[in-house]
Amino acid sequence: MGRQPCCDKVGMKKGPWTAEEDKKLINFILTNGQCCWRAVPKLAGLLRCGKSCRLRWTNYLRPDLKRGLLSEHEEQLVIDLHSQIGNRWSKIASHLPGRTDNEIKNHWNTHIKKKLKKMGIDPLTHKLLSTTDQQSQQQQKQQEQEQKQQLQTPLTNDISDILDPNDKEPETPVQSTITEVKEEDKRMTSTFDTVDIMDSGFCIDDVPLIEPHEILAPCAPSASSSSRNSYGSSNNILGDLEIPDFEWLSDYNNMILWDDDLSSWDLLINDDGDSQLAYDPPRNQCPRMVLDQYTWTYGLI
DNA sequence: AACGGGCTCAACCGCTGGGAA
DNA sequence: TTTCCCAGCGGTTGAGCCCGT
Asked: Domain named HTH myb-type: which ranges (predicted)?
């Protein structure tokens, strides 16, 4: 008996999301929060399946997403993590705040793979390509032995589920138990969290730096500052959003940054200077705002 | 200007695991 | 224990963009 499809696909829209659909989804999530995704399209008035809505939100519309290319530091982190846990993109993404597994997976396949190959490193094994061939036979033998051992003594801790088989070789920095892997996860997370942003290699070359004083017109949270008309425009997305009286904005300094053509909104900055909401229109519809979260965070510090 | 090949990345597909009934 | 639903995951696809000819 097969699994039921995630939704009734008849009449469901597929393909790229339109700005209108994005608006509906953002509006719904901001108003109601994330609930049962299956119910979202119906409640939000979308002809999409719940799964599509969830993916669109998590991979593109989510407020805490960073945009733009991965920095050198992030890239190195991805490489390090990949060498230890393989293609577990969501796990890797969890170490890079604001990055999605899809984004990292794409970046790996389009950039890092080539980069490593250019450097003479096998992206699968993270070993020098020249030595890979020599080791492949040894690996094969070792894997055969491991398979025999597994048949004789089943693993109580399924380390094979955590670690890439290629990382089981002694010369790689591999932990031998799940506990150690988890501890390593924690260590790496905390390392990333506490990294000095000035030394982190964040790439600020990709976008022109804008000093905060050049772009900010901070205003204290107040009833008047939550007026849609303060920032809205008849030809922009935010103006059309049915955000309930901006009550959800009451904690923010209501900083909204507009594209030159006022066709998109990018950031809302709260009192702590955190970016809370970012809207990035489809790349073929309007030029992307030249300010991204990196730049902004960097500017604040 | 037109064409074609390569590249990028958003979106989709199918599968898995967890949890509820 | 079994069945079903749901969210999440990783692999794959294809439309649109870019760039060289």
From this structure: 9-61, 62-116
